[in-house]
UniProtKB/TrEMBL annotation:
The chain crosses the membrane at residues 40-59, 66-83, 99-119. This is Uncharacterized protein. It comes from the Bacteria. Keywords: Membrane, Transmembrane, Transmembrane helix.
Length: 131
């Protein structure tokens, strides 16, 4: 179990993000149904890599969790703003459409990074010890 412990947060976050794709969660929050799963499939691996790289930094897990949580909120705000502006322009505003699409990719990346950091913290605080 000790050999698997470093990879477990990544595996758990990947499972959660796979469930997000299966149940098409982004569409429920305002992503376009045509590309909602694509945004998760692009963003989740990016977020997992960012989270793994962030563990190599000398900042605390709490700072990483807060940073990724703020990134989730900011990226979702950009995606929501882009979607509203794109709809208000009757699909004429290409920049708003890009904000909408790339905002959802960034949201997926930030959620995946936050999940890795959260699971990592939960495992670090786990009382289970193995020899």
């Amino acid at each position: 179990m000790q050999a698997l412990k470093p990879a477990l947060p990544v595996i758990l976050a990947a499972i959660v993000m796979a469930l997000v794709v299966v149940f098409d969660v982004p569409t429920s929050f305002g992503a376009h149904p045509w590309w909602s799963t694509k945004s998760v499939l692009i963003g989740a691996p990016i977020g997992i890599v960012i989270a793994v790289l962030a563990t190599r930094l000398t900042i605390s897990a709490m700072v990483r969790r807060i940073t990724f949580a703020v990134a989730v909120v900011a990226a979702f705000g950009v995606a929501k703003y882009g979607g509203e502006q794109f709809a208000a322009s009757y699909a004429e505003d290409a920049f708003a459409g890009k904000l909408w699409f790339f905002g959802w990719i960034a949201t997926s990346a930030a959620v995946a990074a936050w999940l890795v950091t959260l699971f990592q913290t939960m495992l670090d605080k786990s009382p289970v010890k193995s020899d």
